[in-house]
Amino acid sequence: MSKLSNSKLERIAVNKIEQEINEVGCYLLSDIPVGDKGISYDGKIDVFKDGSESKESLIDSVPVQVKGTQVDKFSSGNRSFSLELDHYKNYYNGGGVLLLVVEIEETGQGKIYYKQLLAKELEGILRQYGHQKERAVQLRPLSETKIYDVCRKFIRERNYQPRALIESDFGEENFDSYKLTSLTYNPEKEETRNIFDHYFTVYGVIDSKTPGKNPLQVPLEHIKLAGVGAEYKEDISVGNSVYNMSSKFFQEPNKSLCLLEDILLLEYDTKKRVNNLKFSIKRFGNLTSQLKIIPFLIEVLKGEKAVFPNGVIHLSGAGEEVNALVEDLEDIYDFLKEIKSVYEYFGIKQNIEIGDGEGEYNKTLARWRIINEAVMYNKCSGFTVPNPDMPKFLTLEIGKRNIVVFYNPVGTKRIVNAFSDDIKPSKFHFKFQNSEEKFEHTPYWLVKSNYLVTAINRNFSYVKESFKDFDAYKDDAIFGVTNEFCLNYLKMYDELKDIEILEMVEYIYELYNGYPKGVSEIVVINQVQINLRKNGKLSSDEVSLLIGIKNSKSDNVGIQFCVSVLLGSRQEAEYYYEKLSKEDQTFYSDLPIYHLFKKSYKKEEMK
To answer: Which residues contact 506 (CB under 8 A, 6 or more apart)?
Structure first.
């Protein structure tokens, strides 16, 4: 092959580009001098709205760098080209460049490749590869598009990528949404519809607070997609059955995936012609979904055609291995139908998520079998009970959730739902340490608050009902037990923000109907802090009550602290808190009132 000189290559390259620019309907004007090069730029292309090339129709200019390179034959598809890192740095400082590489054969024929290098991609190159001398980038053949479109997209996208935005940290929590754009992806053309062959810029969008103003788009990443997905809720027919299931479809370069009910993963390998479908049951999830996906899978493995709105799955010629798998799934399905009775007994909703992790399906099934044996067949050999001769509350773990039960070693049923008519307060008597005197109280005092509120069988109506059969405010000692119970659950509300917890505590305090000495101000303070959590402000009656307590208990520093917090007097609350002894500070810092105290600091910081 006869080697062309660099100046010849340069002239041919610029000429090929100008031929494209001078096409009819291409509103561009080139200024790319030959032999008179800048440091990192070779010239520019002016972009117009129309063919008048007037000042009024000028949109903007695109800086360009042109490279001519001799080849034996043109590259197929994309091609790479290396540049020194100092060039990338200059392009970043200048807001970007349109890189045009022209492959030239010995005959003088040329093929143009292009790359729109903009600030976000350039910033990533400098950040990741700044220690190198050179770095290659991928260019696309210009034949798949028009140079006018390339320049217009360059200008449009450049406006969204000023360095001030790229170099600022807006904080992920401040974005209202996200947006993907691509300079090259076009699904309407065969050459550009493969989404995995293109780069995208991810923008964080901050909605404008001013009516009529455009949202702010902050460039965050320049990426290639590893996969794309879509989510539906749709009917899938299999044989004579129809299953309404949530479906998530993912397309990756060499395979398609479908996740049904977030549980059953179907994987189709587009490169294989046989044995190209795999499946896996990722986790248990919830019973409602299990009662859909298991029979669905059984029918598919038996050779029934599964018809999706956007495709079909059909297996045929199943072998012995598949037949054995079908038998196992049929056994699982029979068991799932059986544990519906366990759900009904505990009052558990079938659609509640148990939170088991990926790969824990068999472990979860084994755990359900143990629970089923204990509840339906009175067999407790599957789990360990500390001091098995003593009755007690237990938590049976399932996934990341739990079921609260009462264990009675001599009962007809040894495992009883903790939230049922079988639990009566009159059966539960307690005594204080160093005292023989017994007293009645709620049996749920024996259950840790975090277990009770997160139990999938919880039923607060039974907890409330349990307080009706005894006087929870009979004397100061019993009141202390009741108050501690309520405060524990008030703290749980602050952690979980579950309104049912707050309503339960409110109900228990409303049972207080007397004012023995040393009790009334505690009840009022706790009732007011409940209402403050519910309503966000105090009523005039509540303010009057608190001021009355503040005046009558002027010598009680703890009471003064609590009232100051509720009245929103942060500085006073801080004053009284500092007056508390170190021991009392530790005590109050563990109470729900301290949560409101700390919130007052956050409100002050936000002003």
So the answer is: 527, 530, 534
Return d(Cα 76, Cα 86) in angstroms, integer: 29
Q: What is the DSSP letter of 591?
A: S
**pLDDT tens by residue, 173-202:** 889 999 999 999 998 998 998 888 899 999
User: For residues 229 and 258, what is the distance between their CA atoms, to the nearest angstrom?
Assistant: 9
Give the CA-trace dihedral at 384, 389, 393, 397, to 10 degrees. 10
Q: Are 479 and 437 in contact (CB under 8 A)?
A: no
Cα separation, 86 vs 45, in Å, equals 23
Amino acid at 193: R
Contact call for residues 266 and 313 (beta carbons, < 8 A) = yes
Residue 107's pLDDT is: 87
Nearest 5°: phi and psi at 330?
-65, -35
Q: Where are the alpha helices (DSSP H) in 170-232?
A: none
Beta strand segments in 374-513, E: 392-398, 401-407, 415-417, 429-431, 438-440
Q: Give dist(CA 296, CA 237) in Å, integer.
A: 9
List pLDDT tens digits, range 351-404.
Answer: 999 999 999 999 999 999 999 999 999 998 888 888 989 999 999 999 999 999
Q: For 66-85, give the DSSP string.
A: EEEEE-SSPPSS-EEEEEEH
Structure tokens given for 325: 């798998």
Q: Which two tokens stand for residue 380?
A: 């407790």
Query: Is the separation of the CB atoms in 63 and 98 below 8 Å?
Result: yes
Q: Are the CB atoms for 567 and 524 separated by under 8 Å? A: no
The answer to whether the beta carbons of residues 122 and 144 sit under 8 Å apart is no
